Amino acid sequence: MMRSNGNDNWLAYQAASVSTSDEKFRVAPALVVIASMTFNVALAFANGHVMNVPTALVIAAQASLTAAALGLALLAWKPQMEASVALLALFGLFAAFRGLLMAQPDPKLLSDVAIIPIFMMLGMAFDDRNLGRAVLVLHTIVFAVFLLEVLAPHAYSELLHIQEYYIKTRGNKIDQFYNTNSELFISATRPDSRLFSFVDWPRSSSIFLEPVSLGNYCSIIVAFACSCIRRLGWASVAYLMITTAAMLVGCDGRLGTATCVLIIVVCAIGPLLPPRSAVLYLPVTIVFVFALVIGAGLEPGSDDFPGRLAYTVDLLHSYGVAEYLGFSNEFLGKAMDAGVAYLITTQSLPGLLLLWTYIGWGTREDTPEQVRFTHALSLYLALSMMVSYSFLSIKTAALLWFIQGTLQSASAREETRRFANPNADEQKGMAPTERSLWAR
């Protein structure tokens, strides 16, 4: 009985403050996400036209945005955030211990994974009724810059000076770029072996400055559109899917294209699968990749999907106890082309297992939206981890975890609203059960 009273008191408190909370967090979290995805393009413009941008400024900008996300989330504290805070604390403790043990602290290794629980909490602080509008606004920005890049490539490159920006802020060298006469990113040149090699223009990047992140963004948008059809409406879904297809061709993302197709499939069958089955995507993918590489005799070295998979398997075969415990930097540079290896190197194998449990097992599955998006993001992450660590970039990770956090909080918000006005469903001419299902 006391437990029930405690829940009622919490719901009463939430109901009393829900309108104020909704007003306060209707815009700010979405603005932080948009800023997290666009600050690099703003700094690239500043570097090319205003001032020399040092690496420290890029780091400070990301740290400030991450801190703003955490601060906003904590201002809208909910018990649902407890697991995210616990995960953040554990990773922080491990990062401190690793830094002391190796006498080589590296805040980046913590920031890579801290983005996940922090932006998940930021999504929980956001009013889920505005999620569709926020994503549509952001997507329109991304697509508008993409159109500028495609229709006026010279103006785009002269506006941003991407090559110069990466040389000054990331330590890249001019001879690393496929086309040294271009102001675009290292891999913007479209060789004949690409999936859409029949297209004449360079690989597109939009606000992300490099093609891989645009491909990752497309996967996230397809996951959102396929998971939230009822929330968005068919016109919005069609807009998202058609423009995303154009950007997939533009960025020529081989993995992104394959992932988008598979996401459509898993969103269709996700609600039919057993509860919590999304946790299986990563282990099943790893087993499949090992079997494929060994069975087919794939060799690392080629810059294609089979070569990348073979590279990941070969790298993990090279790991010893120190690497699996996260106490070695010997393979840190090499692991950047193998996301699962990078996470093991920087967070340890137990840390990776903890993170994946949080992602695939510790999520709510109260609504079809939640189920579909959790399956879609788990598939996206499992595939990305086999070939890159780019899924950790704040440019796309901020949006992914913000959407997941907002969807995770949706059913809790609906419960609070029903407590605040238990007759709301009847006032709208619906039975409570009917209204609840329609909201999903």
In words, what does this structure look like?
The C terminus is likely disordered. This protein has 21 helices and no strands. It has one domain. It has 440 residues and is mainly α. The longest helix is centred in the last third of the chain and has 27 residues. It is globular and about 50 Å long.
Which secondary structure elements does this structure contain, and how are they paired or packed?
Blueprint: H1 2-24, H2 28-49, H3 55-75, H4 82-102, H5 107-124, H6 131-151, H7 153-160, H8 162-170, H9 211-227, H10 229-232, H11 234-251, H12 254-269, H13 281-296, H14 305-318, H15 321-324, H16 339-347, H17 349-360, H18 368-384, H19 394-420, H20 424-427, H21 432-439
Helix pairs in contact: 1-19, 2-3, 2-19, 3-5, 4-5, 4-17, 5-19, 6-7, 6-11, 9-11, 9-12, 9-18, 9-19, 12-18, 13-14, 13-18, 16-17, 18-19
Q: Kindly estimate the percentage of residues that lie in beta strands according to DSSP.
A: under 5%
Rg for CA atoms: 22 Å
- The residue ranges in which pLDDT falls below 50 over 5 or more consecutive positions are 10-21, 415-420, 424-440
Q: Using DSSP, what is the number of strands?
A: 0
Structural class: mainly alpha
Notable characteristics:
single chain; 440 residues; mainly alpha; 21 helices; 70% helix; 0% strand
Quick recap:
The protein has about 450 residues and is an all-alpha fold. It has helices at about 1-25, 30-50, 55-75, 80-100, 105-125, 130-150, 155-160, 160-170, 210-225, 230, 235-250, 255-270, 280-295, 305-320, 320-325, 340-345, 350-360, 370-385, 395-420, 425, 430-440. The protein is globular, with a radius of gyration of 22 Å.
